[in-house]
TrEMBL record:
The gene is bcpA. Gene3D superfamilies: Phosphoenolpyruvate-binding domains. Signal peptide: none annotated. It comes from the Bacteria. GO terms for molecular function: catalytic activity. InterPro entries: ICL/PEPM (IPR039556), Pyrv/PenolPyrv_kinase-like_dom (IPR015813), Pyrv_kinase-like_dom_sf (IPR040442). This is Carboxyvinyl-carboxyphosphonate phosphorylmutase. Pfam families: PEP_mutase. SUPFAM superfamilies: Phosphoenolpyruvate/pyruvate domain.
Length: 288
């Protein structure tokens, strides 16, 4: 299998859907994407029912990485928040995510406790501390094929120039992919694209601060990866609101208007085909 690094090429956009639980992982993995993104917001909400506000621990998240990467045949890169502490924590986090099977880790320069991007109140640590985290992360990995995605959240509170200054420091510290979070106009995105030679990542959040554009427009702006962390769980949330609302109102599923997957096809996607084939192959051993 080609590494995620090998797939990064100028003029090509890798589209990474957000996965947040076993169902979303299995469905996305069978669709032929070149990479998947383990969204922190969605994973924390799905796994713990909590907001993405620094409440999930390293142990919570590395076990999700291990589960997702173990199921996936597609390279998975995963949200590592702030590295869950200081420099020693960053080293431990990078080694843990790599050992768990991730293809890349995303690290950000927020203060702890962090907050989800595109939400208010985010604060960043001093640039020297942030760059040191990226340097430690690059040194801690066993393989250069395990990529370091360096994210800065400085744009919202400190402006684009400070965000660009931080991204440059992250590039010098050894980052493989730069992630300037929450640019607010196409002009800002153009400036980001002109500023760096490293691969750039755009975070596409429907209803967020950054313009939602076409794949061709992202390529023209200089991006090589577009992550879509929220679209899956937003769709799921709307569907469940509709379905559960109908059940509450009518007491039955006959009036459900949301599209429903075919039960047997869905079961196959969840791995039941292998269960049935195993049981058939081993029926004699069970005396059937």
């Amino acid at each position: 299998m080609a590494s995620l690094r090998d797939k990064l090429r100028p003029g090509k956009l890798l589209t990474a859907p957000g996965v947040f639980d076993g169902i979303s992982l299995r469905l996305a993995d069978r669709m032929g994407f070149e990479c998947l993104y383990m969204t922190g917001y969605g994973t924390v909400a799905s796994h713990l029912g909590l907001p993405d506000a620094g409440l999930a621990s390293y142990r919570d998240m590395v076990e999700r990485v291990r589960t997702f990467a173990g199921l996936a045949t597609t390279p998975l890169f995963a949200d590592g928040d702030t590295g869950y502490g200081g420099l020693l924590n960053v080293e431990h986090t990078v080694r843990g995510y790599e050992a768990a099977g991730a293809a890349a880790i995303q690290l950000e320069d927020q203060e702890f406790p962090k907050k989800c991007g595109h939400t208010p109140g985010r604060r960043v640590i001093p640039i020297e501390q942030a760059a040191a985290k990226i340097r430690v992360a690059a040194e801690a990995r066993d393989s250069r094929d395990f990529l370091i995605v360096a994210r800065t959240d400085a744009r919202t509170a400190h402006g684009l120039d400070e965000a660009l200054r931080r991204a440059e420091a992250f590039a010098e510290a050894g980052a493989d992919i730069l992630f300037v979070e929450s640019p607010e106009t196409v002009e800002e995105m153009e400036k980001i694209g002109r500023s760096f030679d490293l691969p750039l990542l755009v975070n596409v959040v429907e209803g967020g601060k950054t313009p939602v554009l076409s794949a061709e427009e992202y390529v023209a702006l200089g991006y090589q990866i577009a992550i879509f962390p929220a679209v899956g769980f937003l769709a799921m949330g709307a569907a469940l609101d509709s379905v559960y609302g109908t059940l509450k109102q009518t007491g039955a599923s006959t009036g459900v208007t949301a599209p429903l997957a075919d039960f047997m096809e869905f079961s196959k996607a969840m791995g039941f085909q292998q269960v049935w084939e195993f049981e058939k192959a081993h029926a004699d051993m069970e005396g059937r």
